[in-house]
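Reviewer 2 asked us to include a model.

Predict the structure of this chain.
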Amino acid sequence: MINEVLKNIAYLYYPKNICPWTQKEQYLETVEYKRLETVINLFDSDDNLKIRNSIKEEFDEDSVLKDFQDFSRLNWQDRCYTFFLNVVENGELCSITLYLSILVPYYVIDTIIHKEQMMISKARIEELEKENLDPRRMKDLVLEVEDILEKKLLYSKFPKSLLNNKFEDISFQDSYLGEFKMFNAFFNNQVIYQDENDN
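Predicted model (structure tokens):
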């Protein structure tokens, strides 16, 4: 049921059977694309920067979550607000990325352990871990974020089972027809790998 509802909402913003690569001019003239562009521009306005700031303020009272950074890219036509937090756990750099759709009241949280990263030296990671006095693990932090999103901001978790479902007849930007996923329709063009063990 929710799959059909979300598909019908997606069809409001993405034209059916028109490829943004091979039929770009036709794509940009569709009612669906113009509707999507209007919504994105509305949420990318200075007035709506206040909304992002107020969302971030919900995390400010927490000693760790207050470090969430706003990485929203609405000027790239993302369909979501994006917040990012680095966490050091078990000597490894990890991250929590929060996606809040502007098209539907849903969120996705993606967690990554950056096994082979070169941004931060091993010595700096060890320092950061020693400095962190908060005993919570990444899973605990994710539960805190979910609690804030669902109880204070009234978002719902996007159904995990639908994230990678593909649309055969719609697409956007750099994806071809048949490659566009539910996550892409409501959030952005990132690839999300989630299994039963993910949040």
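Residues 195-199 have pLDDT under 50 and may be disordered. The beta strands are 69-70, 80-89, 92-101, 106-113, 156-157, 166-167, 180-181. We have added this to the supplementary material.
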